[in-house]
Design goal:
The chain has helices at 16-24, 49-52, 62-68, 79-94, 122-137, 149-155, 169-178, 189-197, 203-207, 211-218, 220-228, 259-280, 312-324; strands spanning 8-13, 33-36, 44-47, 73-75, 100-104, 107-111, 141-146, 164-166, 245-256, 286-293, 298-304, 333-341. The protein is an alpha+beta fold. Strand 5 (100-104) and strand 6 (107-111) form a beta hairpin. Helix 4 runs antiparallel to helix 5 and helix 10 (211-218) crosses helix 11 (220-228). It starts with 7 loop residues before the first strand and ends in a 16-residue tail after the last strand. Residues 8-188 form the UmuC domain. It is found in: Cytoplasm. Keywords: Cytoplasm, DNA damage, DNA repair, DNA replication, DNA-binding, DNA-directed DNA polymerase, Magnesium, Metal-binding, Mutator protein, Nucleotidyltransferase, Transferase. One of its GO terms (molecular function) is damaged DNA binding.
Length: 357
């Protein structure tokens, strides 16, 4: 019996954080806006399309972004607001299907093979969803439509911003053969460069490599590359994802060596971790401290308990102990982070299935 052809949509909000800030502050419209810290060691969380024209991208250092665009407008992030908008968008998705797999606050896969409402066409459903998002949030989204997750993800990036692109089964082979390997979802920059050095620039080039050769060079990922270049991806849309860890970290403007300074900084991070634990109603048994030194050496120290970390005091007690076990600090510390993990299945809170989208 032939398997039913899936109808998958990938929705990706356009420059989400920056667009929310431009929407809420008319003075920012048309300006090269970035969301992130302006300090020397800050990192760009999102860049408006006006900023991207200068080569500014997310995950870029604030210093480099400033050099690329001297008139860059920095805006501090407002994550509570982004999550609120993201929740509005998720509710729109659920109008059409319960099979929603969030990838982050601003993107998700939807399986609309058996949609709750709308036309039988996935393309028309994607257009309806884009229109609903615009109506409810006054923001734009781009959509990719295809029969599998990989192609839907790649398609959503083709006509950004505020675009839609459809890859039907009969057009998949031609599309993939012409696609640059650096644009394949799942092939990172380093892998793309390695392939380029071998003369492999497009899907057509990649298709000439045997599965054995790809596995030899890239391990298990090689089989994934072998399949996706042929349009083979049977991964289902997974509406429930289990959180494996929850944490927070902070990169400091100044390197710290004094324990009192570090304790004060760690306390701020503890507050944020506790706030996130309470919001998700998820508690774990392992606390991990991450320390990054001024020379970028990084270490982690963990403590697993039989009891769950269910109080702010328990987190503070162990976090300070882990920190002081490494004192004195000869080298300056540029970053501290705390992560809670090892969540017992039976202890998960009721919002576990909807993880922050």
């Amino acid at each position: 019996m032939q398997q039913e052809q899936r109808k998958i949509i990938h929705i990706d909000m356009d420059a989400f954080y920056a667009s929310v800030e431009q929407r809420d502050n008319p003075a920012l419209k048309g300006q090269p806006v970035v969301v992130g810290g302006e300090r020397e060691r800050g990192v760009i969380a999102a860049a408006s399309y006006e900023a991207r024209k200068y080569g500014v991208r997310s995950a870029m250092s604030s210093a480099l972004a400033r050099r690329k665009c001297p008139n860059l407008v920095f805006v501090r992030p407002h994550f509570d607001k982004y999550k609120e908008v993201s929740q509005q968008i998720r509710e729109i998705f659920f109008e059409y299907t319960d099979l929603v797999e969030p990838l982050s606050l601003d993107e998700a896969f939807l399986d609309v093979t058996h949609a709750k409402k709308g036309k039988p066409s996935a393309t028309l459903i994607a257009k309806e969803i884009k229109a609903r998002i615009k109506e409810v949030t006054n923001l734009t989204a781009s959509a990719g439509v295809s029969y599998c997750k990989f192609l839907a993800k790649v398609a959503s990036d083709v006509n950004k911003p505020d675009g839609i692109f459809v890859i039907t089964p009969d057009k998949a082979e031609e599309f993939l053969e012409q696609l640059e390997v650096k644009k394949f979802f799942g092939i990172g920059r380093v892998t793309a460069e390695k392939l380029n050095k071998q003369g492999i620039y497009t899907g057509a080039d990649l298709k000439k490599m045997s599965q054995q050769e790809l596995v030899r060079q890239f391990g298990k990922s090689g089989s994934y590359y072998f399949n996706i270049v042929r349009g083979l991806d049977d991964r289902p849309v997974m509406p429930s994802r289990e959180r494996k860890s929850l944490g927070a970290e902070n990169t400091f403007f100044t390197d710290y060596t004094e324990t009192e300074d570090l304790k004060a900084q760690l306390l701020k991070i503890e507050d944020e971790v506790w706030r996130r634990l309470q919001r998700s109603q998820t508690y774990g048994r392992t606390l991990t401290l991450k320390i990054k030194f001024a020379d970028f050496e990084q270490i982690t120290r963990s403590r697993t308990r039989f009891e769950l970390y269910r109080s702010k005091e328990s987190i503070h007690e162990v976090a300070i102990e882990l920190l002081m076990n490494e004192a004195p600090f000869v080298k300056g510390i540029r970053l501290l982070g705390l992560t809670i993990s090892n969540f017992p299945h039976e202890e998960k809170g009721p919002v576990q299935l909807t993880i922050e989208f």
